[in-house]
Amino acid sequence: MASINQNLSIRSLHLSTRPVNALKNYGVHRVKDLLTMPMFDLLKVPNLGAGSIAEVSGAIQALKTSLREEGDDYFFLDGQGYLHTDFILSDLALSNRCLRGLNSIGIYSLKDLVNSSLMDLKGIPHFGKTSLRELEDLLKKFKIIHFNQKGPLTAEGFASQFILHLNRALEKSSQALYRDLLVLSGKFLNDGSGPLTYLDILNQPKFLQEVYGLTSFKIALENHVLVQLRQNRCGLTFNQLEDLGPSLDGFEAFLQDLLAFLVQEKKILFHRDLYYPTFPSILSCLDIFFQERDRQLYQLRIQGFTLEEIGKEFKLSRERVRQIIKEMNDFLTQEQIICQEDSYRYFIQNYDLSAQQFEKIFQDPLAYGYIQTRFNYPKGQGRPLKELFLDPKLPDYALDNLKSLLNSSYIQVEDDMVKKSKFVIHRYLLTRYALDQISFLDYFSIYKQFMTQHKLEGHPSLFVLPHNLMTKLSGSKEILWSFGRKLRYYPFYSYDFSKLLKGLALDRYKDVEYSTRYFFTRHPQLMEAYDLRDEYELHNLLRKICPPEDYPQIQFLRMPNIRLGRGHRKAQMLELLDLHSPISSHDLARLYEEKYGVNRQSVIATYMKCLEPYYYKGVYDKEKKILPPEILEDFQGQVTEDFYFLQDLRDQFQEAYPHLDPGYINSRSIRQLGYKVYQDYCISTKYRYAQDFFRSILAKEAMYSEDRFSRKFWSLANVISNFYWLKKNFSIFHYDSTTIVNLDYLKSLGVSKESLVSFLEAADPLLMNNRTFCIADLKRQLGDEELCQKNLPDSFLAYLLEDHLDGICLDRFYSQGLIYRSSRHLSPEEFKNCQPLWP
User: Per residue in 646-674, pLDDT tens?
Assistant: First the structure.
């Protein structure tokens, strides 16, 4: 809208007749009246309907935009007489419902609110009269002071720009300072030297000298200094305070005089080149607020005496002492009492400091005990002491003390500090040199070299013999061992192993002996999620997380073998021979490997001795029975399914014919029944290949729950491989964590294979490595994609990404709704450091 004279009639805005008449009847005749009219008064104008409100609100917005283009700006004057350039709405007294509504249309500050349209506000869902009334009450608390930065400089324009200049550092200025600046700038503008600019006046030394002499300016800067020091109780240098002040010529000398005055008045403290806020010590606070007995009791506590020791001294119970100290702490908190010793809270809260280390660094014998007594910060959860060395908040004197402490207790290793502790040194070396498998002898050589390099060979607490070190490392949960005495560091405590144990489901295996290779090869995704690299590491890890007292049914044999219940390899070999006799040793070893995971060379070398009675001319043979004709015909009528586990078939036969020998069910008789025999199961001969059966049954139903098939069925390698083949070929999909749907089901919802591929192709370039996101964010980014318009659950899209895009991880963090992309699964600490893809 072009610039318009504010004294013109509101008819000049070309509004409809109805809103013009309604406004005039309400007393609004000129453009100026309309601009000064409070936003929410539009709702109070009689005969002004929703359409008219929208029309007038739009006109007001256009006028405000035009004025801003002409250089108009403004401050907010609060009830205490302070000028502010703006406010963040979350800092003001607004309800959460009101804040969420405003944020949903991009209104975050008070200026955003003032510049918004009334119709924008009315268009917010569930933003009713209560919220509008809340905003109306808020705007009444502030007065808007306008000024124009264009045209000839006026006293008001200069004072406003100077306030803006100051408020870059001070955030707010008093109205008294604004009035003093009006008078002062008016004097310089009227001195007869002709038209002046803002910089002409600001660069005059005489002007700034008079500014520095203003009482209102001194008060503003004094308050600013006190606020900054109280926010930085560990102290600030002069240069830091100067950087936090306004950028004005001669400000350094003014600040020096101001700080000297504040020190003299004991409003601040100056010690070892640092300025501090003044607060009483904890002992002074105790003298002021508490009785003699309670003072003594509290003082003993901060000196390190136990509750029981204090109770004996004052003839009180331990619980009563605890109650008295709690009541004293509650009083200090309720009255917002701050002590000198509180300046150290930051360090005790954020760093892992013992009382002895704290006293050596800060030379204060009471502060540590007081802060722990009052606030009880958890120990052992802060950052390591060596990181304190780089903290800019640490005073110079404390830095010198810290260096002395570190030199006596730590070793400087490149850019790192390593504590002189056997445990810490080994952890450092393991995390540096043993992230991949390394032989024990190579690791011991690295340890000896480290000790020699840092002249620690004579240190008695660090000396260790090879066999003692191996025993120590074997007992550590953070070390995984593999074949050939190889080891590597493993971040054991960063994992939650409940998902691993649930996935392996060891409790469902009864009386059987396996190699952990069986589980390792059948659960590749679990092994990748837990970064397990071979069956030996899996065996070693299970020993650590399945102690005998919690898992008495599990016996850990020589790596990598594991016994569940009373299983035994001899019985398992005989069972296989019963089913597949006659058979060569190599074929039998292959079958045993497929069923129990044991390497076939190991089977041939050590497992077949028990079968010597059945060996003849390179073949193991055990006579197999066939079903009598009448039994065959009868049992064929009972066996109607396309798929059976062999054991289930034996159980069914024994139940039907308890008087017959169970040996009648063998590979030969099963073929009589019309089935092909595989390792643990058989499939009807109407299927040419096993994969034909598995793909047919997995994709047959439009929707089904995973538990429609037993866990035993899902444990079959052939089931898993065909299941993932069907998923990769867009035949079946995870709808949620336990529900499977096929493509026909999706087509019934209007979802085509082409729309799935289009969604994946659009999402792939957006999803960056090591950045977190949620499905809702991704849908907003891909709003035009057809798939995003369908009523599909977020879980469907999440599993679709995981199945078809490389590196998409839905691990334990998906419970928080978060997904990430990475070449490997991240630990909780690594995940915490990931930035969101779309903030």
Answer: 999 999 999 999 998 888 888 778 888 99
Of 338-347, 406-415, 550-559, the range with the lowest mean pLDDT is 406-415
From 553, 533, 559, 535, select the one nearest 474 (Cα to Cα). 559
Beta-carbon contacts of 91 under 8 Å, excluding residues fewer than 6 positions away, are: none
Segment 409-417 mean pLDDT: 65
Cα–Cα distance list, 150 to 157, 197, 804, 812 (Å): 9, 11, 60, 59
Per-residue pLDDT at 70: 46
87 plus 173 within the same structural domain: no
User: Which residues partner with 268 through β-bridges?
Assistant: 277
pLDDT-wise least confident of 447-461, 660-674, 702-716, 819-833: 447-461
Q: Are residues 22 and 86 in the same domain?
A: yes
Same domain, residue pair 286 and 197: no
Mean predicted lDDT score pLDDT of the chain: 84
Q: Which of 419, 434, 450 is the last residue of a domain?
A: 419
State the residue range of the domain holding 251: 166-277
C-alpha angle 105-108-111 in degrees, rounded to nearest 5: 105
Which residue is listed with tokens 């739009």? 58
Does residue 71 register a pLDDT over 80?
Answer: no
Q: Give me the phi and psi of 68, to 5 degrees please.
A: -65, -35
H helices present in 487-584, as ranges: 498-504, 516-522, 524-529, 535-545, 569-580
Count of domains forming the chain: 6
pLDDT at 231 over 90: no
Domain's final residue, options 277, 292, 319: 277
Please name which of 203, 289, 209, 304 lies closest in space to residue 257, comparing C-alpha atoms: 209
Q: Tell me, yes or no, whether 14 and 138 share the same domain.
A: yes
- What are phi and psi for residue 538, nearest 5 degrees? -60, -45
Residue 459 lies inside a defined structural domain of this protein: no
